[in-house]
Amino acid sequence: MEIAFFTDSYPPMRDGVSQVTGGLARRLVALGHRVRVFAPQLENGRGYREEEVDGVAVARFPSVAVPLYGQYRWPVFPWGAARRARGAGTADVIHVHTPGGLGSAGFLAARRFGRPLVGTFHTNLRAMAEAVPPKFLVPQFFRIAWWWNLGLYWRCDVATAPSTAARDDLERSVRKPFLRAVEVIPNGVDVEQFRPGFASPDWRARCGLGGAPLLTYLGRLTVDKGVHRFLDAVADVAATRDVVAVVGGVGPEEPRVRARLRDDPRLAGRVRYIGPVAEAEKPALLGQSDIFVLPSTSDTSSIALLEAMACGAAVVAPDAGGAAELVEDGVTGRRVSVQIPGSLASVLGELVDDPAARHALAERGRAQVVRAGSLDTMARRFITLYAHLLEARSVHARRPAR
Length: 402
Prior knowledge:
InterPro entries: Glyco_trans_4-like_N, Glycosyltransferase_grp1. The chain is of the alpha/beta class.
């Protein structure tokens, strides 16, 4: 089978969607399928080019940075990208992963070549619109993108979501019901790449941190992702306990994060901002973390949470939304009402005080991801979906005209 991915997030871009699209493309190739990816260039001034990475054919289009979200790119003349996407014409299925310029080009390519179209709802753009600073009409841009997002997925032959919460949100938001129910296909991670035991690099030594329990935040630095909730909780816990913490990632809240770590005496010296983390170094960071914290209220799922569980960290997740579905409270991690002041700090304090409980949660969390949250499981479910779409097309084509 040949599958064409259209996505505005693809490695080496660093975010959850690029992790999913890159991992899924590689695993589909490993399972004997052909994958061609249409994605943006990650640098200004770079023209169209084609390359092969890990057996995946990648076509990259000229792009510009999205204001306030410099890590994200918008293709120049995306409609032209649809016309130039000649390789999509040989695909059996076209799979759109984002509603941006390349995702829209994928929709047009599916129409042009008459291919089945799958769309996956990865990102809650409405929550992003509510969280970004009101500069340069950026919130309005994300609100418009949200409504475009709904229209695009509604027109797909089948839409998928990584969690039941994301599916329900998508189905509630459209003005007309989907012609076919949104399918839930949970995200997966490479459990061989993300596993316990990586000693290098030594993140404690690199960051000048001691041997106290290490609390980790890794994700976009935005209000909706909860980086300030994390810092508030660490400050509260550090008032009565010996803990250290790291914050990894980039985003519009970076200046405020840096200022807090510099000016707040409860955080200065205890918390390090480490910026974006290279993929090759992420398993070591997560595996060396005692507690991984996801204080987000907007995730449709969470690749970072799955990666942390796979690496053997005890995890704390929100008790609502897609990420909550990844954790069984008290069994594979802890769930908490992150929006209630003091609740996150209370749970973190309990885990800091109980190493045995942390270890038990970490072991069971890793086992759950290996059993049900692997990249292989996700890839095989998408293969089944693609095959069903193609079979339905074939049956329809064989029906005699009346």
